[in-house]
Design brief:
The protein is mainly beta. 11% of the residues lie in helices and 39% in strands.
């Protein structure tokens, strides 16, 4: 009894639900695409109901060979037409897409995105290259009358011309045959002896239905190649690509610049893919490698941190291959010395620091001074009564340098940057005021005596500088450091050979 009661209670609900579902189909009919058509001018879409033109324009797109194209729309009732700017062209693939943004006049959207593809190509078979003659890796010993390329179907002449690549290039005539299924490349002049020629036809090649070659086709032939291993010539060039020397095995060439490049030239094409395994320098040095990427006939080692006045050996090992599988069978070493005078680094010679009043041009027993020299480091320095504590007084120093005789001497601006003086424990304060270059003839007599150098007899460029200090003395003890950094350079931009730190005990 209870089950029957439940049945009748639920029955009206079931009936109501059925009616609602049935009515919804009537009240809200499905909005869909019924048909797509096209002609030379347009693509037309027919919908199941009157279409909302504004939403349709946003939802509809047309691609021509994967490129979206522009155009204008015309809407009428349940149809909308799209007129591409250049019309519907022959020999193209098209894809029409309509998103769910498209609505009918009552605001009902497409249930799902719509796609329609069509093609105006006569057929879709891609062309292929049947053969290239001479064949890939073929050695040509006789005169070459022409190069032949055979296709699987006729191709357009324009696309062939645009897709053809020849390296190294040469001038030729084109002779199309067999209804454009074959072409002959006839050289206008004899080809270059002992040369590798690469013929490439890229994917720009197309048939008359605009179907393109699937992938690049390449063929390499060797024209009258020698069958012996390449000879090797070794040369040294400076940074301006001026030839400095030709190197010979077991012979040391001198007067080579530190920024040089070592060039190996071979008689025919080499395989430099693993070149670093067949060339090495002793002592070791950093370098940049440049290879002949086109003909493979040379390799260049550009040195970057070679030391001056150093003998280097560059060795080529046996096993270096050429492109034909032949291998270099000798082990040869080539020596050169980087002692070119223009690269000679400057060096510090001597220094003298005043520690008393030097008003006189002649040296007296009361004149106090200190040498700046590493063999006199930690020597005691004492200031005369002239430097009373707490009073700033003028002091002088004289510094001498050697540099390349091709230079104009030490650059005074670099010296101002690279010279520093400091004191520990606040034993004194020393401030550099001025630094000036002085000529040899202007050196005070007393300084010439203290230097003890005959600067007129050396083969190097001599630079003498007068440094003016202000010294404020104190009663404390400590160390005074005179430092010369290797930022100090000559006029050729050669840096001081090393850093100097002269230490005096006060």
């Amino acid at each position: 009894m209870c089950s029957y009661r439940n049945f009748f209670i639920r029955f009206p609900v079931i009936v109501f639900s059925f009616c609602f579902i049935s009515c919804s189909d009537v009240l809200f009919p499905e909005f869909k695409v019924e048909n797509v058509s096209y002609d030379d001018n347009k693509v037309t879409v027919k919908f199941s109901a009157e279409v909302d033109g504004d939403s349709a324009k946003k939802a509809i797109s047309l691609q021509e060979d994967d490129t979206e194209i522009t155009g204008t729309f015309f809407c009428s009732g349940n149809k909308i037409s799209f007129f591409p700017k250049d019309g519907i062209r022959k020999n193209y693939d098209y894809d029409l897409a309509i998103t769910t943004l498209c609505e009918d006049s009552k605001g009902i959207s497409l249930e799902k995105d719509f796609h329609y593809s069509f093609s105006t190509r006569a057929e879709h078979t891609r062309p292929e290259i049947i053969s290239i003659s001479p064949a890939n890796q073929q050695h040509i010993e006789d005169e070459l009358e022409y190069i032949s390329i055979v296709f699987s179907k006729p191709v357009t002449r324009e696309s062939f011309i645009d897709s053809l690549e020849i390296s190294p290039a040469f001038e030729y005539f084109l002779d199309f045959k067999d209804d454009d299924k074959e072409v002959h490349l006839v050289p206008k002049a004899p080809l270059t002896l002992n040369t590798d020629y690469t013929i490439t036809v890229n994917t720009g090649l197309s048939d008359f239905s605009r179907n393109n070659l699937m992938e690049d086709k390449k063929s390499v032939f060797f024209y009258k190649k020698k069958n012996d291993f390449a000879s090797c010539a070794v040369s040294v060039y400076d940074k301006a690509d001026t030839l400095l020397a030709t190197l010979a095995a077991n012979e040391n060439k001198r007067n080579i610049s530190t920024d040089c490049s070592i060039r190996f030239d071979f008689g025919h094409k080499m395989d430099f893919s693993a070149a670093s395994a067949y060339f090495y320098f002793t002592p070791s040095v950093d370098y940049k490698i440049t290879k002949d990427e086109i003909n493979g006939k040379y390799i260049i080692f550009e040195l970057s941190n070679a030391k001056w006045n150093t003998e280097y050996n560059v060795t080529i090992l046996n096993g270096l291959p050429d492109v034909y599988g032949q291998r270099y069978e000798d082990i040869k070493s080539f020596a050169f010395t980087t002692d070119n005078e223009k690269n000679a680094p400057p060096c510090f010679v001597n220094g003298i620091v005043q520690t008393s009043d030097w008003s006189s041009q002649t040296l007296s027993e009361t004149d106090d001074f200190c040498y700046l020299s590493e063999d006199k480091n930690y020597s005691n320095i004492s200031f005369s009564e002239y430097y009373a504590a707490g009073t700033g007084k003028k002091a002088e120093a004289y510094l001498s340098f050697y540099s390349s005789n091709e230079s104009e001497g030490i650059d005074v601006y670099s010296l101002r940057e690279g010279l520093s003086v400091s004191a520990t424990n606040s034993c004194c304060q020393i401030i550099i005021k001025t630094i000036n270059r002085i000529e040899l003839d202007s050196i005070p007599k007393k300084i010439k005596v203290l230097f003890g150098e005959d600067f007129y007899g050396v083969s190097k460029k001599v630079s003498i500088f007068n440094v003016i200090f202000e010294i404020t003395n104190t009663s404390k003890s400590g160390e005074i450091h005179f430092v010369l950094e290797n930022v100090i350079k000559d006029s050729l931009n050669n840096s001081l050979e090393r850093k100097y730190d002269f230490i005096l005990n006060k």
